[in-house]
Amino acid sequence: MSTPDSSSIHVASKSEHKKDEIPSSSPLSSLSGPSSPLTPLRPRRKVTATKRYASPSRDEVKSIPRRPKKKAAAAKRTPKKPKWDSENILKDPKSPLATANLRSILCNPMAWTALDQDEKTEILSLFPDKRHILDSDTEDARPNFASLMNDDSFRYDCAAYTDNIAQGRYDPDWLASAWSAHERRKAGDFDKYLIDKLEEDWGVEIPGEMKVRRAPPEEETGDDAAREQGGPRKRKLEDWMEMDELAA
Prior knowledge:
The chain is mostly helical. Among the domains are: about 85-170, no CATH class; about 180-210, no CATH class. The chain is built from 11 helices and 2 strands. It has helices at about 5-20, 100-105, 110-115, 115-125, 145-150, 150-165, 170-185, 190-200, 215-220, 225-230, 230-245; strands at about 135, 140-145. The protein has a two-stranded antiparallel ribbon with strand order 1-2. Strand 1 and strand 2 (about 140-145) form a beta hairpin. The radius of gyration is 61 Å and the shape is elongated. The termini are far apart. It holds the Pfam family ASXH. This is ASX DEUBAD domain-containing protein.
């Protein structure tokens, strides 16, 4: 058997001797090693990284706070004038009456009740007869709307009225020209034209005794007896009626 070397025995004995020399109360005793079961381990504190705020880039647009705008005082508005009134609605070709069903409007009971008593009396006085008036000659007199709706003359007149509005025939200038032509026609300015046109259209020649001959203005008047017996004034009226028929 081999025996241990004397030098190794000497080193081992020195180490044991040093262990015995260090007291347990010495601070060096805590450095004996982390593997000792009697030495507690200190928990590590968690360290969080500090937040770093990036500086805004130069290209970023900074919003500038603005003061709230003061509300402007509401401007006073003048009342707008209505486009249609009682005058231009009866004359303007673009009037809503030009395309409206005038017959239905006039036969609506509300169109009658909206009038005052004087207007009702004036309208009833314009009726050609009392056939279309209920309770005539009383304060409760009113149009008979049922009979008016079935009257062909009323239907035609309503359609003709709206058509005249659309054609601009109620314009003051047009009316002035029409009345001027009417007076010229009464004076006989168009007699020759109407006779020539009649002969050309029918291919006949009107005898001289059938042609209209208008008397001068001073010969149109006569005494009362002549008027009652159908004198020159009555003859003049017949001439006008005949010319109206020729021009129709």
